[in-house]
Amino acid sequence: MLTDLPPRRTASAAELQELRASTFRFTAQASLAGRPELVIPVRTIASGEWIGVGLLGPVGGESELVRLAAQICPPQGALAV
Hints:
20% strand; three-stranded mixed β-sheet; single chain; 2 helices; alpha+beta; 81 residues
């Protein structure tokens, strides 16, 4: 689970490893099953906190997930609920 925004592209190897270790239990199932997963950032209006909503697609369904995200995500950024 991410407690903050994802690391920047310039993050160090140690920062990326820390992220992998902290999120592995949430993402391993999709990887082991060979299914694509897409996480959409959502900002809650009540608390202002960021959460990620994970969508799990069928094997080979990467393009379907991207199309779905394009339909439900506003162009200016994260969903707000």
